[in-house]
């Protein structure tokens, strides 16, 4: 007799009609059948909120006008009906306040990054998390790709030797014009410090490059030397960044993040070199991992179920045979899948294994603040400090 595993009841704050990332989260969460959407506060616009809920098959009674009312009403429902996980896909300034109250109300939280607007706010959120018995995860989606895990495993097992050099870049072109001035809402709030935080490009995509570098190299970045730029008149926050960095085990690196590289789409890329060889992974071609050896021909490892040369961590995150592309939604679905396993297995602590947690958020925030401080100051190098 087959035992039916109940789906985890999920609620959303943000992600109403017209929002890209909310739809991506719902599709990713539904890909493996672990979750059921039961409620939401999708938009501050009442009509958009109700229309979004109706389109998703929710009753009007579970489409709340605001997230505060949603948390209170859901908490009052019987345990077998209320949501169990809250997904936060709002502008940045709401991430920490909503997460803090949701954790205090007894709900697990999966949030878009960044986790907070600044380091002080994030440390306060960590204190709330520590006093709860809930799980917290961050949507660093690129850390869900199988071949990223394969690269990390090859670094850890010494396939490329001692890491010497890391080069990571994330160029986009969508802010090459003043699209915020033309009414683009996604660009608009991202250039408002009170909604986006201290960094523009450095916070939006620079943190993805930063976390990818630390994850694959398997060592933290300790110091950076950064320059930030603004290329559109009237823009308040950076749209371009470049920096050198030094890592804990001696590797040096270069990080470039820019949203004014005209014509570029989303070509996040990392190259990492040791004393025996190197690895290269590109987000726009995520099924391939290039392995260069000091004394052997270059080879390209390809993702796919059943490939015997791939590590278990990579294989476990694949769904299809080689040659059947898996991409962004599947990578995000891997994070949701690991989060679901942690909830069902009642994992101790606050981190779901395989899912970036609060400490990854702290590292990213320290990175943003160090980059800005270095750019504004006279010091050649600025250390990343996660705690005051």
UniProtKB/TrEMBL annotation:
Stretches assigned to the Gfo/Idh/MocA-like oxidoreductase N-terminal domain: 8-138
GO molecular function: nucleotide binding
Stored InterPro entries: Gfo/Idh/MocA-like_OxRdtase_N (IPR000683), Gfo/Idh/MocA_oxidoreduct (IPR051317), GFO_IDH_MocA-like_dom (IPR055170), NAD(P)-bd_dom_sf (IPR036291)
Domain named GFO/IDH/MocA-like oxidoreductase: residues: 150-280
The protein, known as: Oxidoreductase
Organism of provenance: Pseudomonas silesiensis
């Amino acid at each position: 007799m087959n035992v039916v595993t109940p789906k985890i009841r999920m609620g959303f704050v943000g992600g109403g009609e017209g929002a890209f990332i909310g739809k991506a989260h719902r599709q990713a969460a539904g890909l493996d059948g672990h979750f059921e959407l039961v409620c939401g506060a999708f938009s501050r616009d009442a009509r958009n909120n109700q229309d979004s809920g109706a389109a998703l098959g929710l009753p009007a009674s579970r489409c709340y006008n605001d997230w505060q009312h949603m948390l209170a009403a859901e908490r009052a429902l019987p345990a077998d009906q209320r949501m169990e996980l809250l997904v936060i896909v709002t502008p940045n300034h709401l991430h920490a306040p909503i997460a803090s109250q949701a954790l205090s109300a007894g709900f697990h939280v999966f949030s878009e990054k960044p986790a907070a607007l600044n380091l002080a706010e994030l440390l306060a959120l960590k204190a709330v998390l520590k006093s709860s018995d809930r799980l917290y995860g961050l949507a660093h989606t690129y850390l869900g790709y199988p071949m990223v895990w394969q690269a990390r495993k090859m670094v850890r097992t010494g396939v490329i030797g001692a890491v010497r050099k890391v080069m990571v870049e994330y160029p986009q072109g969508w802010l090459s014009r003043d699209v915020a001035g033309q009414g683009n809402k996604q660009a608009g709030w991202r250039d408002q410090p009170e909604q986006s935080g201290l960094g523009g490009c450095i916070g939006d995509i620079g943190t993805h490059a930063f976390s990818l570098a630390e994850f694959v190299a398997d060592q933290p970045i300790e110091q950076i030397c950064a320059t930030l730029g603004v290329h559109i008149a009237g823009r308040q926050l950076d749209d371009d960044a470049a920096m050198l960095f030094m890592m804990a085990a001696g590797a040096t690196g270069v990080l470039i993040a820019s949203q004014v590289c005209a014509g570029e789409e989303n070509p996040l890329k990392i190259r990492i070199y040791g004393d025996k060889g190197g690895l290269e992974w590109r987000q726009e071609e995520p099924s391939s991992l290039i392995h260069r050896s000091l004394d052997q021909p270059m080879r390209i490892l390809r993702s796919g179920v059943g490939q015997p040369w791939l590590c278990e961590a990579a294989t476990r995150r694949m769904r299809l045979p080689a040659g059947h592309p898996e991409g962004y939604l599947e990578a995000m679905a891997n994070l949701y899948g690991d989060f679901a396993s942690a909830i069902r297995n009642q994992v101790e602590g606050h981190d779901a294994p395989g899912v970036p947690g609060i400490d990854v958020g702290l590292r990213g925030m320290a990175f943003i603040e160090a980059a800005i401080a270095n750019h504004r100051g006279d010091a050649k190098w600025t250390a990343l400090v996660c705690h005051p």
